[in-house]
Write a structure and sequence with these properties.
The protein has about 425 residues and is α+β, with helices and mostly antiparallel strands. The protein contains 15 helices and eleven strands. It is globular and about 75 Å long.
């Protein structure tokens, strides 16, 4: 693990040291910037290892020329980003990302900041401060390139006819998804009793009154919240759009402005009060006070018994579909007779996978509880190497089509800028 970290630090330094700090050959000049031979060698080394190749000298020379073209294109993008006054990267953005990446190194390699500082000094002869500054320089370049793409390429949207045309043209070359599984389900919402809900509602209202009277949100969360982060003052961290299964909660947090605190509101899990600590791109930093409305143990036992009975008596597709109609509380899957969406085996939740005796079409799981939701799954279909289809994978295909469309627009933009930029290849 330590040798891998030394290699990682070495590669970082190859990419971050400036031309003035290296006795190094220049392989290309792009505008006022240069691409160094060691920069190209580092890029080649990473690519070879990513692809698991062991090329001979002739293949390596060919790869160096091809990869130099990629580096030139990236530098052209960067040179023009530097010129565009509409594209800015703040020091705060850079500092936050530097901190995130340093913490990632520490966590991945299970070392302390002091150990990292000693390793950098030993291997590269530089201080941690200088190391962070060099990382920050590279991150700034990454952010500039990202913002060029957002500014010039973000409009590369695709409509329905674009997606259909793309799929019809490329369907035979689109990669198969590997072994995939299609589940159907009966989902039962375990509702709390009236008395439990009334008690929880009274508690959340009294907490809101304390907030309105000036008491500290974090302290009230520590004292009264049932949430998993109560001991941290209820701070959940940054939550991205589309990442939550509880849509009511997601809609509420994204309707608030930074610094704004919600009125008490209810989800299927219980009652919440949230405040927004900040925003970043498509994510909000959320702090909450949560009062749980757990169902009684008796009602949980009754629901489990009902699903166990369904498992015994619903072996066929038709029998299971009828049970879905009678008992499922999830309206989305219920409209599809319980059938959900295809997923690869690697995407299948280990808890769901473990609830089946064997993964065979027609098998039913044991009832699974997740919060106040109890679910019985049935294996509707399994395919060994499923291909994408418009009917089952519209969103995935649309994303691929949009990505390719964006890449095409970006290449056209870079090609235009290359004609307007001084480029001297010296390899």
């Amino acid at each position: 693990m330590k040798s891998y970290l030394i290699l990682f630090i070495t590669l970082l330094s190859l990419g971050f040291l400036t031309a003035a700090e290296k006795v190094d050959g220049i392989v290309a000049v792009v505008g006022d910037s240069v691409i160094l031979s060691s920069e190209l060698d580092a890029y080649l080394f990473v690519k070879i290892n990513q692809m698991g190749l062991k090329p001979d000298a002739m293949e390596t020379d060919i790869m160096r020329r091809d990869l130099l073209s990629e580096l030139v294109e990236g530098k052209v993008l960067l040179v023009n980003a530097e010129k565009d006054t509409n594209i800015t990267v703040s020091q705060d953005e850079i500092d936050r990302e530097v901190g995130r990446r340093i913490q990632g190194i520490l966590s991945q390699h299970m070392i302390s900041m002091e150990e990292l500082e000693k390793l950098i000094a030993k291997e590269q002869g530089i201080t941690l401060t200088k190391f962070k500054r060099e990382i920050g320089s590279q991150i700034r370049q990454e952010f500039l390139k990202q913002k060029v793409q957002q500014l010039y390429v973000a409009t590369a949207s695709v409509n329905r006819s674009d997606v259909e045309a793309f799929f019809n043209e490329y369907k035979d070359s689109l990669p198969a998804l590997g072994e995939s599984i299609l589940l159907s389900k009966i989902e039962v919402n375990l509702s709390a009793s009236k008395e439990v809900r009334e008690k929880a509602y009274s508690k959340i209202i009294s907490i809101k009154e304390m907030l309105d009277n000036g008491e500290d949100f974090s302290e009230l969360a520590k004292l009264h919240s049932d949430g998993p982060n109560a001991s941290q003052g209820g701070v959940l961290g940054f939550v991205s759009k589309g990442s939550l299964s509880e849509l009511t909660f997601e809609e509420k947090i994204f309707s608030l402005k930074p610094g704004e605190t919600s009125a008490p509101f209810e989800t299927r899990l219980g009652f919440h009060i949230v405040t927004i600590l900040g925003r970043k791109d498509q994510a909000v930093n959320v702090q909450q006070i949560f009062v749980n409305t757990s169902p009684s143990e008796e009602s949980v036992k009754d629901a489990v018994a009902k699903l166990d009975s369904i498992k015994i008596n619903s072996r066929t597709v038709d029998e299971f579909s009828k049970a879905v109609t009678l008992y499922s509380t999830d309206e989305v899957s219920k409209a599809q007779k319980g059938v959900t969406k295809w997923m690869t085996m690697s995407e299948l939740d280990p808890k769901v996978k473990g609830s089946f005796d064997t993964l065979v079409v027609g098998n039913l799981s044991s009832p699974l509880r997740n919060g106040n939701i109890l679910t019985l799954f049935r294996i509707h279909d399994i395919q060994e190497n499923r291909k994408l289809t418009l009917a089952d994978d519209w969103n995935n295909i649309a994303q691929i089509a949009q990505r390719i469309n964006s890449q095409k627009k970006l290449r056209e933009l870079v090609s235009k800028w290359q004609k307007e930029t001084f480029i001297d290849i010296r390899l």
